[in-house]
Each structure stands twice: as structure tokens, then as C-alpha cells.
Amino acid sequence: MDPDLLRKGLKISHLRVLAGLAETGQIGAAAHLLGIAQPAASRLIGEVERIVGRPIRLRTGRGVVLTEDGAALARRAGRILLELDEAGRELAEMQKGAQGHVRIGSVTGPALDIVLPAIRRIRAARPGITVGVDVAPSDTLCLMLTEGRIDVALGRVPVGTRPGLLDMRPIGTEPLALLARAGHPLAGVRVPPRATLMAQDWVLPEPEAILRQTVVARLLALGLPMPRVPVETASFLLTLALIRDSDAVAAVALPVAQQFAGDKFARIPDDLGLEVPSFGVLTRSGSRQTPAAMALIDEISRDCRL
Question: pTM score, two decimals?
């Protein structure tokens, strides 16, 4: 088979319908997403199949399932379209000069400790640049990054991520601290007894979360029993609400604990040595960042001495 798909007639419209079909699983829904009629979408899919010389979809009772060939082509199509969108953004920002919009995601600790100061500096130096910030766990951030919903992320590459999908410039490990309500019985104790600490209720994210796995691994290494976790949540706001109204403790990033310790919350002194594995600046492999995104990455890099 001739591998030159462009010479055989593959067009941007074909890439768009492939990406739409992969996203929706329905020809009608893909057509609606692209703003075209369903017969036009069906025609484009048929043209793709003639160009590649093999079926790219299978009809099922619930819609359309891409074949292995179709899924591979759809992945490439999505990446090509994403790069074209980024090229348009870059050209627009270059025409504007020191302007543009950058979308960054971060896990909680670095969001306060690294991203926020970097945004303050870049806004002072380049007021024409605007920034959108998402704070979420690493697995959510990496999905947003690969889908093009953010330009850069501060986090970790989740286990099982396809090799070559993301690039990471390591920054360092992320120390954790225990946070509780102000007035908690252990807050004023210089070195809380570990047995008493383990007897408290803990608020932690779900078992597959990196933070939870870090806590479990460290407690096992220290030979300590697992604490009771009556509520599992990755929501920081819900975590604060839960520890505010009870004697439960929460493992959070150290910068977060330092930020919130005060009238309503207090750090519990401990010597558990909780530390999440290395995180870093994450970008899509092979992508070219817009000037605004590069400016923010440069600020973060200088601050972290990357």
C-alpha cells in the first residue's frame, strides 16, 4: 500500500471527522460536532476508507467502533489538528507582541508554591499575558494536557502512560504535612505518639491516587498500622470541611499546610517523613509552545533552577 496519504487525497476534513468519530462514537454526533450534515460525515468516512484501503469503523448496536487502523489514524488526526490549533494561537500571539493566553495545570502544592509566584511575576513584567489555571490530580492534568485543554502542567506522569506521549523536566519531590483543625488535641504536642496519630481518622484521596499510595508505602516502611479513612476525597475544599468539623487529620502538600495553618487549621508535628515522588514540568512530546506559554515556563524554570 502506498503510505503517502496526502498524495492519495487525505484532507483536513478527513482528519476532523476521524477525530470527531473517535470522540463521540456516533456518525451523527460527529457530524454535529463538526457542523456538517450526517450524509456528508458518512461520505468523508467512506473516502478515508478508500484512501487507506481498509475499514476504519465497525457498526455496533450502540454506534460505531473504530477498527485498530481507524483508532491509530484517529490518534494521529487528533494530534495534527491540535498542532494546527496551537500554530494559529502562536501566530496570533506573535502578531500581538507581548500578549497571549496560557493555560497551566498543577497539583495542589506546586500551585501555591511555584505557579502562583510565577504568575505574579509574569503579570507584572508582561501585563498583556493572561493565564488560566486548573488545580487537579496528576492523572487528570495529564489527560487535559494530551487533549490540548492546557498547555503545560506541574505534576507527575501517571503509571501506565503511553511512552513518548509527554515530556517531563523534573523539579523535585513534594513533602507532605498533616493538617487538622485548630485546637486539635495533637496540634500542640511537640512529638505526637505514633500510636495516637494512627488512631485518628485520616482524610485521604482514593487508593489509586499517588498521595494515598505514598502515605501507605511510608507507613508500611515504618511498620505502622493503616489509619481509618472513613471518607476518601481528592477535593481540597471537602478535605478542609471534614477536618474543620472533626478530629480527623489530612495529609496535604507542605506549602498548602503552611498556607492554611492559622486561626482555623493547624499543622500536626510528625516525623513520618511523608514525601511524594518527583514531579516536574510536563508538556506534550514534540509540541511547540506559544510565546505566552514559553514565558511562563521560563519563569517557573528560573524559579526552580531547571
Answer: 0.66
